[in-house]
C-alpha cells in the first residue's frame, strides 16, 4: 500500500472544492485551493490550508489551464490532485501529465478516461463485457445518406449522437426520414463547436426511457462493488434537475441485474476509483448502457445519504491503495436532491448571475445543503449556474417529498433568481408524486410563466 497523501490540490472550484476540503480535513490531509480572480472570495479559497490564484475569470485561462495547475502543484509541493467534476475531471491528458510527474490523480487511469470518454469505444467495451447496450453498431456515420440508410433498417425514431459528446451536446432525436439531414447538420455543428470533434454515430431511440445510473467503486486490486442507484429522469434538455434514490421505478430484481451489469462494466476495464454507469430503462424494465462517467458526480450526495457512506473519503482511500471496504449496497429510506441554480425558471431558465443580498439555507433533521455561496457572494457569469444542492432523507418517498417541500420553503436567496420556485412547482405535480415520469416528461408540461 502506498503512503497516505500529505497534501491534495483541488483542481476545481465552488461547492465540490469545498466538499473535498471538508473530507480532507477530517482525514488529516492538507489542502490547496486554486482560484481565478473571479473566485477570490469563494468559500473554498477561505477554508483550504493554502490557496493559489491561477489566472483570470475565463476558464480557459484558469481552471482549464493544465500548465498553471501543474505549476500550482509544484510550488505548493502537493502530492495528489483531486479534479472534482467538470473542468479537467475527465481529461485523460491531465491525468497522464499528473502520472508522468509522480502526482497521484485521484480518479481512474488515463486509459480508462480516454476509452470511456469516447462513446463508440465505450459501447464496444460494454458489448465485450456482456452489458446490454442500445441497438446500433456504434460505428461512425460516413454521411447523412449513410445514416438514413441505417435508420431505414433500424427503424425510426433514432438518436444521432456526438462520439465525443456529453451534457446533451451534439444529440438529436430523428423521428422521420425527412428531418434527418437538417438534424444531422445541426448535431455535427454543435459537436464541432463543443468538443472539436464532429464525429456522429447513431442508436435506436428508446421511447419514454427512465435515466437510472449505478454508482460503482473499484480498487487497485481489481475489486468492484456497486453502491445502488440514482434516478435522474427529471431533466430539461438532457440536463438533470432532480435526483432520487431509490428510483420509484426500481424493483429488487432489477437493482440486482443492473448492479451486476455495472460491476461487469467496471471489472472489464479494471476500473479504479468512483464512477457511474448510466443506463436507459424502458417501460418493460429492459435496461441499456448509455455511458460511463469516470469521476465523482454532482449528485453523489444522494448515494452518500442513502447508504451513509462518504464517497470522497472512499475515493481518496482507493487512490492511495486501500482495498474497498464493504460490499454491494441497498438503499435505506428515501433521498431526494434538488439542484438550486442561479436561473430564472419562468424565463426559459435564463442564467441570473449577480450579488446575493440575502441567503438562508434550510436546516433540520434529514436535511443537507452543499453550497459555496453566502450573503454578499457574487455569482459569476463565467461558470456553471449551480449554487447549491438541497438534499433530504426520510423513511419513505412520500415523507421525503414533504420534507423537501418544507426545506424549499425555508431556502431563501435574494438578489438573484433561482430554481427554487421550479422545484416547488415540480413537487406538486401528480405525475411526479406518483413516480410517473421519464426523461421527456418535463418537456411536455405546461410550466408557469411569470
Notes on the protein architecture:
It contains 14 helices and 22 strands. With 450 residues, it is of the alpha+beta class. It has three domains: 100 residues, 3-Layer(aba) Sandwich (Rossmann fold), CATH 3.40.50.20; 70 residues, ATP-grasp fold, A domain (Dna Ligase, domain 1, 2-Layer Sandwich); 235 residues, ATP-grasp fold, B domain (D-amino Acid Aminotransferase, Chain A, domain 1), CATH 3.30.470.20. An eight-stranded antiparallel sheet has the order 13-12-9-10-11-14-21-19, with helices on both faces. Strands 3-2-1-4-5 form a five-stranded parallel sheet, sandwiched between helices. The longest helix has 18 residues. The protein starts with 6 loop residues before the first strand and ends in a 16-residue tail after the last helix. The model has no long low-confidence stretch (mean pLDDT 95).
Features:
Dna Ligase, domain 1, D-amino Acid Aminotransferase, Chain A, domain 1, Rossmann fold, 450 residues, 5-stranded parallel β-sheet, alpha+beta, 33% helix
SSE diagram, text form:
Layout lengths: L6 E4 L3 H13 L3 E7 L6 H5 L2 E6 L10 H11 L3 E3 L9 H9 L3 E2 L4 H8 L1 H11 L14 H11 L3 E5 L8 E4 L5 H16 L4 E5 L5 E9 L5 E13 L2 E7 L6 H18 L3 E9 L5 E7 L6 H8 L3 H9 L14 E8 L1 E2 L5 E2 L2 E2 L2 E3 L6 E5 L6 E2 L6 E9 L2 H14 L1 E3 L5 H9 L1 H5 L16
Parallel strand pairs: 1-2, 1-4, 2-3, 4-5
Antiparallel strand pairs: 6-7, 6-8, 9-10, 9-12, 10-11, 11-14, 12-13, 14-21, 15-16, 17-20, 18-22, 19-21
Helix pairs in contact: 4-5, 6-9, 7-8, 12-13
Amino acid at each position: 500500500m502506498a503512503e497516505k497523501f500529505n497534501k491534495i490540490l483541488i483542481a476545481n472550484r465552488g461547492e465540490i472544492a469545498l466538499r473535498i476540503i471538508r473530507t480532507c480535513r477530517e482525514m488529516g490531509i492538507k489542502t490547496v485551493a486554486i482560484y481565478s480572480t473571479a473566485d477570490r472570495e469563494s468559500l473554498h479559497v477561505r477554508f483550504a490550508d493554502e490557496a493559489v490564484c491561477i489566472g483570470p475569470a475565463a476558464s480557459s485561462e484558469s481552471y482549464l489551464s493544465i500548465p498553471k495547475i501543474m505549476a500550482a502543484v509544484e510550488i505548493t509541493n502537493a502530492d495528489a490532485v483531486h479534479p472534482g467534476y467538470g473542468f479537467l475531471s475527465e481529461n485523460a491528458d491531465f491525468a497522464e501529465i499528473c502520472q508522468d510527474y509522480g502526482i497521484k490523480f485521484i480518479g481512474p487511469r488515463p486509459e480508462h478516461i480516454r476509452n470511456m470518454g469516447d462513446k463508440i469505444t465505450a459501447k464496444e467495451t460494454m458489448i465485450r463485457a456482456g452489458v446490454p447496450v442500445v441497438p446500433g453498431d456504434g460505428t461512425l456515420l460516413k454521411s447523412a445518406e449513410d445514416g438514413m440508410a441505417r435508420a431505414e433498417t433500424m427503424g425510426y425514431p433514432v438518436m444521432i449522437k456526438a462520439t465525443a459528446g456529453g451534457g446533451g451536446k451534439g444529440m438529436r432525436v430523428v423521428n422521420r426520414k425527412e428531418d434527418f439531414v437538417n438534424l444531422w447538420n445541426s448535431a455535427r455543428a454543435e459537436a464541432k463547436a463543443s468538443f472539436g470533434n464532429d464525429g456522429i454515430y447513431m442508436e435506436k431511440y428508446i421511447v419514454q426511457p427512465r435515466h437510472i445510473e449505478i454508482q460503482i467503486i473499484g480498487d487497485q486490486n481489481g475489486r468492484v462493488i456497486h453502491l445502488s442507484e440514482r434516478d435522474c429522469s427529471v431533466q430539461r434538455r438532457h440536463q438533470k434537475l432532480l435526483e432520487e434514490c431509490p428510483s420509484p421505478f426500481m424493483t429488487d430484481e432489477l437493482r440486482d441485474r443492473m448492479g451486476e451489469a455495472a460491476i461487469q462494466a467496471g471489472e472489464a476495464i479494471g476500473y479504479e476509483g468512483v464512477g457511474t454507469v448510466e443506463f436507459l430503462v424502458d417501460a418493460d424494465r429492459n435496461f441499456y448502457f448509455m455511458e460511463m462517467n469516470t469521476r465523482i458526480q454532482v449528485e453523489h450526495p444522494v448515494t452518500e445519504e442513502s447508504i451513509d457512506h462518504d464517497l470522497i473519503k472512499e475515493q481518496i482511500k482507493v487512490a492511495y491503495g486501500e482495498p474497498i471496504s464493504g460490499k454491494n449496497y441497498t438503499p435505506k429510506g428515501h433521498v431526494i436532491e434538488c439542484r438550486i441554480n442561479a436561473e430564472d425558471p419562468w424565463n426559459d431558465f435564463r442564467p441570473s448571475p449577480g450579488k446575493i443580498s440575502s441567503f438562508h439555507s434550510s436546516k433540520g433533521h434529514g436535511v443537507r445543503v452543499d453550497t459555496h455561496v453566502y450573503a454578499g457572494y457574487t455569482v459569476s457569469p463565467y461558470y456553471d449556474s449551480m449554487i447549491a444542492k438541497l438534499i433530504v432523507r426520510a423513511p419513505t418517498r412520500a415523507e421525503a417529498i414533504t420534507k423537501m417541500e418544507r426545506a424549499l420553503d425555508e431556502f431563501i436567496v435574494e438578489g438573484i433568481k433561482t430554481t427554487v420556485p421550479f422545484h416547488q412547482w415540480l413537487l406538486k405535480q401528480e405525475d411526479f408524486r406518483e413516480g410517473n415520469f421519464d426523461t421527456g416528461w418535463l418537456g411536455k408540461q405546461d410550466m408557469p410563466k411569470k
